[in-house]
Model the fold of this input.
Amino acid sequence: MSLEQKKIAVLAEDKYENLEAWYPILRLREAGVEVDIIGRDAGCEVCKSKEGYPLKVDFKAREIDPADYDGVIVPGGYAPDRLRRCQNVLKLVKYQAENNGLVAAICHAGWVLASANILKGKTVTSTSAIRDDLVNAGAHWTDEEVVVDGNFITSRHPGDLPAFMKAILEFLIS
Done:
């Protein structure tokens, strides 16, 4: 399957990290991937980053069918703390985890994976600030720029975005 036939959900909520959302969105679109911006059910229509940069939501999580997507990317910032409280966001993430779809998370986004209860036995990375949360959710945490464990791809911070996106694109091509 070519990248032009892939469809990825990128999660959005206020206080997202600019680069951790926009870098994947633009790289995927540049590669021909269809990208939908998915917000939480009670969340923003136009989400503002930590610096106020707008990101328009295409659909609320309740409006989509997780089976319509080949994966999900969860940007960091403070947005994951709100995203993880939405059951339909967790349903999307869990569906991708259980059906070999892409589950990609960077920085604080690991909180969403922990709340979706999908980390047991997985090797992941994140910002060190949430290491204990991920370990307590059953993950093995390591400090590397990108960690690939099956269909899970995780990174630590914006400086890791080139390695993060390289791994994502390789996963989607395979």
Q: What stands out?
A: DSSP finds six helices and eleven strands in the chain.
